[in-house]
């Protein structure tokens, strides 16, 4: 239970959970957007007759086309063209709605115009593109010099929404931002265990470095204390530093002794015996490790085991 509680308080876990939640929300929002298709046709400006080209230079034709091409954008969005296009396709949107669904792209220096129409139905998008192209051709914008011809009478229809690649990118970016925010907030609201123990040690008058050992991993804790014991070359004494850690201190003392680590038997000068303190994590946030003041020599505290 203690391990589960510690895991649930882990800031990294909070950050991962925030990233997962935000990413999932973004994906669900985009995934539930209405499906949308785009149908595209291309028109090519061509001379009205071979005789005109033989009589006039090709540069003259290009100049006329270049000056007239810009009008295609206005023609495609004109009320009359949109009304006829909408009326020609069953189930089509109104002319006002169709206005925003139509896109015109002029390819510079080529005489090519690309028409795109969006719709929630691939069939409707296709029929609208064909009808719109027919209306533009019928307007004879570059007459009598030339005319527009369809490069292909079959529109290219593609699904454009929801954009799964874009959704994934947005979800990952939003998830990363949420994780960073959650991690930062966790650090401010609830400092790490090491930071809280360091603050409690400082409040208790201990300013020198003290090893902070995770008591949740028994073998790792014993190995780390064994190294400290070997470095000191003297037997250790285990004491409780917080009110509720007396039983844990007694248990740790027995475990260390069973592992072959020498435990002080009371005959040694208490001021010369290195001390391993045991603290209950829930008590550390109180600000003090109250038993430090009772040690004969607080400087002998070499480690704090946090349970």
Provide an overview of this structure.
By secondary structure, the chain is α/β, with parallel strands linked by helices. Strand 2 and strand 3 (112-119) form a beta hairpin. It has three domains: 2-23 and 164-189, no CATH class; 36-161, 2-Layer Sandwich (Bacterial polysaccharide co-polymerase-like), CATH 3.30.1890.10; 193-306, no CATH class. It is rod-shaped, with a radius of gyration of 39 Å. The chain has helices at residues 2-8, 11-31, 50-55, 58-76, 79-88, 95-101, 122-138, 164-189, 193-203, 218-232, 246-258, 281-284, and strands at 36-47, 102-107, 112-119, 146-150, 156-161, 211-214, 237-240, 275-279, 301-306. Helix 5 (79-88) crosses helix 7 (122-138). The longest helix is centred in the middle third of the chain and has 26 residues, at 164-189. Strands 1, 2, 3, 4 and 5 form a five-stranded antiparallel beta sheet that branches. It starts with a helix and ends with a strand.
SSE inventory with pairings:
Blueprint: H1 2-8, H2 11-31, E1 36-47, H3 50-55, H4 58-76, H5 79-88, H6 95-101, E2 102-107, E3 112-119, H7 122-138, E4 146-150, E5 156-161, H8 164-189, H9 193-203, E6 211-214, H10 218-232, E7 237-240, H11 246-258, E8 275-279, H12 281-284, E9 301-306
Parallel strand pairs: 6-9, 7-8, 8-9
Antiparallel strand pairs: 1-3, 1-4, 1-5, 2-3
């Amino acid at each position: 239970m203690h391990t589960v509680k510690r895991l649930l308080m882990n800031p990294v876990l909070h950050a991962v959970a925030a990233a997962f939640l935000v990413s999932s929300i973004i994906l669900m929002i985009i995934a539930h957007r209405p499906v949308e298709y785009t149908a595209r046709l291309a028109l090519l400006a061509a001379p009205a007759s071979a005789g005109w080209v033989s009589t006039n230079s090709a540069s003259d034709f290009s100049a006329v086309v270049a000056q007239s091409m810009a009008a295609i954008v206005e023609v495609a969005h004109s009320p009359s063209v949109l009304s006829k296009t909408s009326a020609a396709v069953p189930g089509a949107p109104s002319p006002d709605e169709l206005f925003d669904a139509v896109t015109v792209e002029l390819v510079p220096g080529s005489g090519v115009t690309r028409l795109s129409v969006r719709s929630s139905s691939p069939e409707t998008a296709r029929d609208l593109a064909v009808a719109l192209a027919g209306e533009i051709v019928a307007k004879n914008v570059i007459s009598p010099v030339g005319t527009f011809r369809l490069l292909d009478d079959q529109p290219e229809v593609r699904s454009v929404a929801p954009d799964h690649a874009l959704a994934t990118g947005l979800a990952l970016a939003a998830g990363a931002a949420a994780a960073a925010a959650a991690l930062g907030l966790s650090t401010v609201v609830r400092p790490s265990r090491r930071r809280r123990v360091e603050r409690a040690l400082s409040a208790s008058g201990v300013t020198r470095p003290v090893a902070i050992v995770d008591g949740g991993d028994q073998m790792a804790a014993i190995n780390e204390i064994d190294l400290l014991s070997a470095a000191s070359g003297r037997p250790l004494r285990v004491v409780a530093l917080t009110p509720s850690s007396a039983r844990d201190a007694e248990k740790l003392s027995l475990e260390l002794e069973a592992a072959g680590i020498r435990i002080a038997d009371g005959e040694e000068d208490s001021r010369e015996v290195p001390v391993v303190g045991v603290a209950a994590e829930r008590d550390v946030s109180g600000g003090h490790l109250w038993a430090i003041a009772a040690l004969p020599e607080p400087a002998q505290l070499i480690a704090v085991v946090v349970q």
